[in-house]
UniProtKB/TrEMBL annotation:
Domain MOSC, first and last residues per copy: 27-176
Organism: Brevibacillus fluminis
PROSITE patterns assigned: MOSC
InterPro entries: MoCF_Sase_C, MOSC_domain, Pyrv_Knase-like_insert_dom_sf
Superkingdom to which the source organism belongs: Bacteria
Signal sequence, renumbered to the chain: none
PANTHER family: METAL-SULFUR CLUSTER BIOSYNTHESIS PROTEINS YUAD-RELATED (PTHR36930), MOSC DOMAIN-CONTAINING PROTEIN (PTHR36930:SF1)
Pfam families the UniProt entry points to: MOSC
Name of this chain's protein: MOSC domain-containing protein
Molecular function terms from GO: catalytic activity; molybdenum ion binding; pyridoxal phosphate binding
Length: 188
């Protein structure tokens, strides 16, 4: 379906995490349940409308395009190599992946996680200054400027749940690209 070779990209779930409250970090779990149209069962950000506190203050009726937060383990590897102590779930992600260039996916790409769950990618996570409260200097590592002056957001991607299912570490991830032309990810 318009995916070509990249549509066959596959990766692995490294960790799954959840937090019932609006904490910065999430707790690793043996498995999580993705619920169609809502997000991660038991997570503070689950819901059909926005749950992120700053967005609720702007307009609580906005659709929740940030039901699931995914980060590539390769980012965590790089941060650890730079001297930061950061592990799966600590940057607030629900799903930590390996083997997929999450930031290179177009809007509308679908991730098939495990046997049943499907997440449609909506955009980039916009890292906030809270990340420096977690570890000083971390914001500069996940948010930089490209040569053309635009922001380079590296703190993961956001998506909505299209199909419910349980996912756990070790599950496979298959990527299906949307039809051309592809739209680059923007912050959501």
């Amino acid at each position: 379906m318009g995916g070509g070779k990249m549509g066959e990209t596959s990766g692995t779930v490294v960790a799954v995490s959840v937090s019932e409250t609006h904490t910065f970090s999430k707790h690793n779990q043996e498995s999580i349940r993705l619920v169609s149209g809502l997000g991660v069962e038991g997570d503070a950000h689950a819901g059909a409308t926005v749950k992120h506190r700053s967005r609720v203050a702007q307009d609580p009726t906005q659709p929740n395009l940030r039901q699931v937060h995914l980060i590539h383990a390769e980012l965590l590897d790089g941060l650890q190599a730079a001297g930061f102590h950061v592990y799966a779930g600590q940057l607030g992600e629900n799903v930590t992946t390996r083997g997929i260039d999450l930031l290179g996916l177009p809007a509308g790409a679908r991730l098939y996680l495990g046997d049943e769950a499907v997440v449609e990618i909506t955009g980039l996570r916009n890292p906030c200054p809270q990340i420096d409260n977690f570890q000083p200097g971390l914001l500069a590592e996940v948010l930089s400027r490209k040569e053309d002056g635009t922001l380079n957001r590296k703190a993961g991607i956001m998506g909505i749940v299209l199909a419910s299912g349980d996912i756990r570490p070790g599950d496979s991830i298959r990527v299906e690209l949307p039809p051309l032309p592809h739209k680059p990810l923007e912050r959501v």
